[in-house]
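Hello forum,

I keep getting stuck at the same step: I have a sequence, I want structure tokens, and every attempt I make locally crashes halfway through. Rather than fight my setup again tonight, could one of you with a working pipeline run this one for me? It's a single chain of 134 residues.
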Amino acid sequence: MATRIFRVSIPEGLDLAFTFIAACIDSAGLTIKNPETDKITSWSDEGEQVVTASERILPKINSGELTNVQFWSSSSDDMFVSWSRDGCLSTFSLHLDGVDVTQSVAVASKLIEGLLTKYTSKQIAGDVFAVNFE
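Reply #2:
Ran it on my machine without issues. Output:
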């Protein structure tokens, strides 16, 4: 089975783009804190789970120390989100295999609504939202 990934490019710095993405995901019903542990988790390059305090998220994103995070719909269902910076675009990859199709559709809907509402007036060229099956 192919891996399902949403890719979203935001014409902002990582901190503002992450704030936008997180708000869209949150409005679709997922939370950055694991509902069972109340912790924010990501993964190191070595494959170890890392816990980050909420007040440290944006500074760690800006410094490049943090390059991914998990959003949770339940203590066992999560969406892994990673990002990179390329010129004036921040690109996010939302890995959907940890959530069901209904949640994936809700996230896509909120992202598209947010992109069309917030960024329509900006000079954007090219693809800003894609669904990939890898």
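The chain is about 30% helix and 35% strand. If your local run keeps crashing, start a new thread with the error log.
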